[in-house]
Amino acid sequence: MTTTRWWLIRHAPVPNPDRLIYGRTDLPADIGDSDALAALAARLPPRAVWVTSHLRRTRQTAAALRLPGSDMALVERALAEQDFGRWEGLSHDGVAEHRPEEARRFWADPAREAPPGGESFAAVMGRVAGAVARLTAAYAGRDIVAVIHGGSIRAALALALDLTPQAALRLAVAPLSLSRIDHHGGGELGSDGGGSWSVTAMNALGTFSGSGR
């Protein structure tokens, strides 16, 4: 049986004192915590396929881990954070105050409702599942280190755990944390998921702090 191991790392913290929504906004990460980066790097496999999203904070974090392959990471846009559309750069309090009808509609079903001009979390789960299936098929039997985002890691965990979008939103993913999902079976994942998944780690090493998405 072929086992493909996904090492899911959320990028380093993004300075965000005003707690603004920054899903697709290309903000830099704070990679100054050398002890946390070293502890994380020590847990990772030495010969892996590296993947980041196209956003700077994931590429910065991958480079700061300084492991072979991290400087030549595949860039996979389908593993990016949720797009919050016209809410990007606003706070949730600001949205509630100035766009109350949009906020009411969104919070009535936050898993399936999209902010104006953005995407729903259910849509995030769909695109992440497609990317995970494609990369699992391409690199079957390998270690894949994916330095990505809280939302896309939540979506990958939901795939492995067979969670609904509503249930998946209960998962919290800390900055600079390590989660791992393993796919057991052949390289081909059909529309039904193919093979089987196991979750061997979640939020290892990460420290929770208040930050926006």
Automatic annotation (TrEMBL):
<dbReference type="InterPro" id="IPR013078">
    <property type="entry name" value="His_Pase_superF_clade-1"/>
</dbReference>
<protein>
    <submittedName>
        <fullName>Alpha-ribazole phosphatase</fullName>
    </submittedName>
</protein>
<dbReference type="GO" id="GO:0016791">
    <property type="term" value="F:phosphatase activity"/>
</dbReference>
<dbReference type="InterPro" id="IPR050275">
    <property type="entry name" value="PGM_Phosphatase"/>
</dbReference>
<dbReference type="InterPro" id="IPR029033">
    <property type="entry name" value="His_PPase_superfam"/>
</dbReference>
<dbReference type="Pfam" id="PF00300">
    <property type="entry name" value="His_Phos_1"/>
</dbReference>
<dbReference type="GO" id="GO:0005737">
    <property type="term" value="C:cytoplasm"/>
</dbReference>
